[in-house]
Amino acid sequence: MINEPASLDNTSDNIQTGARQTAEPIVSAKALRKRFGDFTAVDGISFEVPRGQCIGLLGPNGAGKTTTMRMLMGLSTVSDGELQVLGCDARKLSRAELARIGLVPQDDNLDPDLSVRMNLEVYGRYFGVDRATVRARVPELLEFMQLSDRADARVMQLSGGMRRRLIIARALVANPELVVLDEPTTGLDPQARVLIWKQLIALRKRGVTLLLTTHYMDEAQRLCDRIIVIDHGRILDSGTPDELIERHVKGHVFEVQKPFVDGFDESAWDCEDIGDSVLVYAEDAKAFVDTVPTDTQYLHRHANLEDVFLRLTGRALREV
Amino acid sequence: MSTLFSRYALAIVWRHYLVWRSMLASSLASNVVNPTLFLFAFGFGLGAFIDTMSGVDYLAFIVPGMIAYAAMFSASFETTIGSYSRYAMQRTWDAMLASPVSLFELLWGEVLWSALKALFAAVCVLIVGWLWGGVISLSGSLLMIPVVFIASLGFASYGLFATSCARGYEFFSYFFTFWITPMFVFSGVFFEIDRFPAAVQWLAWLLPMTHLVALIRPWMTELPISPPMVVVHLGYLIGLGVLAFWLAYRNIKKRMFD
To answer: What is the dihedral angle through the alpha carbons of A88, A90, A95, A97, rounded to the nearest 10 degrees?
Structure first.
């Protein structure tokens, strides 16, 4: 809103599109690097987070996701390159900018010495929000994250899902424009994940910009407008979930068991050997089914982001 | 100056106050019972053999020492075990720094709170000592309060410096063995340090608590102290405190943001 250009072309019939294209992105990284001694955690990545969108940083453990987020919050120094957050250099974010960002860290760093309610009230004070405003806001936040009946519980008494919901509520205490979420649902049960997704979607509808890291493909597919796949500190590809699927894994996946029956020619297809079987990526499912020998054993499913992810980042285990 | 009293630093103090308030009973108990036990043991036990020290009733002599020790211990404990827990174990510092609170304000808030807590401990000893009949000058005791607060800002800063070097709780055993205990023994809590050999006296004067005791004991017991010495003691307490805070800030900044 603040960054929208004053001279919007009112004659244009798609003001919205125009605004979205010209508005300054909330986050903009150019050739961003982070080195820890000899190790390069983030190796020259460039990306933008447009206002009002949900952008996902997708990558295996140790890909550089968390480091990127920490640099963005001014919690880790930038080694090289450019990083603009809310129009300001991330190296010298002022209080005014920091007050507009909410962070949901990967690790639980709730204040164990305070109750659920006081975690929020105290955090609001860290943001400089006056006490009356915070007090009015806390019940709304608890309601939003379905924690109202646990307001007076100690943090230690909460389940993992509740803690995570409280961390998200805490990030929202000062009405941020940008919420940065580092693996918001890792380790949670499906019920807790679904609730968090629902509320994140609600936030985005209110115009809050979201930047999240995850290694859950279903999460990325459900929440993100655009996905940036990173590994070893570099961007492998980016696009909408559909674009990525289209580009890397066509529309359908056939898992063909080895040994192959006579007449099956794997070289005719875009495929990937995964050991006991081969994954065939095909745009036209019928073409595949019609061509292969009738007694071929295979599993057929729609291609998803997980296929993209594994194809791009490889199948080897990550020990980080 | 505005940073020192910014609402962000005060928000950190407020957080600590809330936690402390919820444990007020235990805090009050330890702050009152500890000095009572000490004064009982030393006042009655040792006091039976020692009538006066430097011409002052022995009980009145050790009350200022106990006040300095209580403040020193309280401030040191808070910025070592307390701050280290928040920094490395609970990781609440990470959460604080993801807000507009700056690292300087966070650390200053820790130190400010620790000094307030130390002051509370000191006042508890003062009240116990006064009820026990061990306070000679009430006006001197009032003068003592701001000085104990200033010294405690320093004690908290030395603790914070230790925290900035710590890689685990074990580290603090050095801090307690080589910092807290020497001050308990060498800073003149129980007797004048001029009874030590000269070399030990020099070492004792390096310890900030020696200067605090040397300041507040004359005030509280109506012993003489020259104005230049007041300036020297205060200057040492403030100077060393500022240095420790600056070093702690530098170390922690490097550790947290690199």
So the answer is: 50
Alpha-carbon distances, residue A186 vs A177, A178, A190, A314 (angstroms): 24, 21, 10, 21
For residue B3, the distance in angstroms to the closest alpha carbon of chain A comes to 13
State the Cα–Cα distance between residues B73 and B258, nearest whole angstrom: 32
> What is the share, in percent, of chain A residues with pLDDT greater than 90?
57
- A195 C-beta neighbours (distance < 10 Å), count: 17
CB–CB contact B98 A105 (8 Å):
yes
Measured between CA atoms, the residue of chain B closest to residue A173 is B99
Residue B72's Cβ-side half-sphere holds a number of Cα atoms within 13 Å equal to: 26
Say whether residue A35 is in contact with chain B using an 8 A CB cutoff: no
Torsion of CA B230, B232, B236, B238, to 10 degrees: 50
Rounded to whole angstroms, the Cα distance separating A116 from A123 reads 11
Is the minimum CB–CB distance between A76 and chain B shorter than 8 Å? Answer: yes
The secondary element (H helix, E strand) that includes residue A66 is: helix A65-72
Q: Are B117 and B75 in contact (CB under 8 A)?
A: yes
Q: What is the pLDDT of residues A212-243, one digit of tens each?
A: 998 888 889 889 999 999 999 999 999 998 88
Put simply, the answer to whether A98 touches B100 (Cβ < 8 Å) is yes
Give the span between the Cα atoms of B175 and B158, in whole angstroms: 9
pLDDT band at A18 (very low <50, low <70, confident <90, very high): very low
Q: Which of A34, A85, A126, A127 to mutate to test the interface with B (most CBs of B within 10 A)?
A: A126
Q: Distance between CA atoms of B162 and A279, rounded to whole angstroms?
A: 57
Of chain B residues 89-148, which have a CB less than 8 A from chain A?
A: 90-92, 94-102
Q: Dihedral angle at the C-alpha atoms of A90, A93, A99, A100, nearest 10 degrees?
A: -40
Which of A73, A107, A128 has the CB atom closest to B7's CB atom? Answer: A128
Residues A61-71: tens digit of each pLDDT: 888 999 999 99
A143 confidence band (pLDDT: 50, 70, 90):
very high
Beta bridge partners of A230: A235
Residues of B in contact with A128 (CB under 8 A): 7-8, 11, 100
Structure tokens at A145: 């994250």
Alpha-carbon distance of A162 to A168, in angstroms, equals 10
Residue of B nearest to A94 (CA): B100
Instruction: Give the one of A73, A75, A126 whose C-beta lies nearest to B101's C-beta.
Output: A126
User: In this complex, do B15 and A109 lie within 8 Å of one another by their Cβ atoms?
Assistant: no
- The answer to whether B95 contacts A110, with C-beta atoms less than 8 Å apart, is yes
Instruction: Report the 10 Å Cβ neighbour count for B88.
Output: 15
Residues of chain B with pLDDT under 50: none
User: Strand A178-182 and strand A209-214: pairing?
Assistant: parallel
Under DSSP, is residue A128 helix (H, G, I), strand (E, B) or coil? coil
Return the structure tokens found at A2.
């603040």
* Average pLDDT of chain A, as a whole number: 87
By C-alpha distance, which of A252, A255, A203, A211 is closest to A230? A211
> pLDDT tens for residues B85-122?
999 999 999 999 999 999 999 999 999 999 999 999 99
- Say whether residue A133 is in contact with chain B using an 8 A CB cutoff: no
Q: Categorize the per-residue pLDDT at A12 as very low, low, confident or very high, splitting at 50, 70 and 90.
A: very low
